[in-house]
Amino acid sequence: xxxxxxxxxxxxxxxxxxxxxxxxxxxxxxxxxxxxxxxxxxxxxxxxxxxxxxxxxxxxxxxxxxxxxxxxxxxxxxxxxxxxxxxxxxxxxxxxxxxxxxxxxxxxxxxxxxxxxxxxxxxxxxxxxxxxxxxxxxxx
Length: 140
Prior knowledge:
The protein is of the alpha/beta class. It has six helices and four strands; from the N terminus they run βαβαβαβααα.
């Protein structure tokens, strides 16, 4: 089994989970961890979301911010086999990883790396793109 955990400060993870399930209604085994919404420590929330670690299962954990408290707690799970952590989660990266890996029996790290590179290309300052398009139109 492959389990997807979205972990963030406040409600980002729940919103992302809701959007993912809207786009890919067949998506199973996805958990959202929304830290600091109650008095439950992040450590406990992640433990509840992950459940009992099974060496035959795969766990893909997306966190919102590199070095943040949620990410720091997730990193503790790297001691287990088949745990993959991706930070800087966004809809494009999560969607790309989840859909790409659906074609694989086991996680292929090159697929994750490729999805990250693709997501980086989608982070742009749109004002510059529009200005460049307008400048191109004026040159014609």
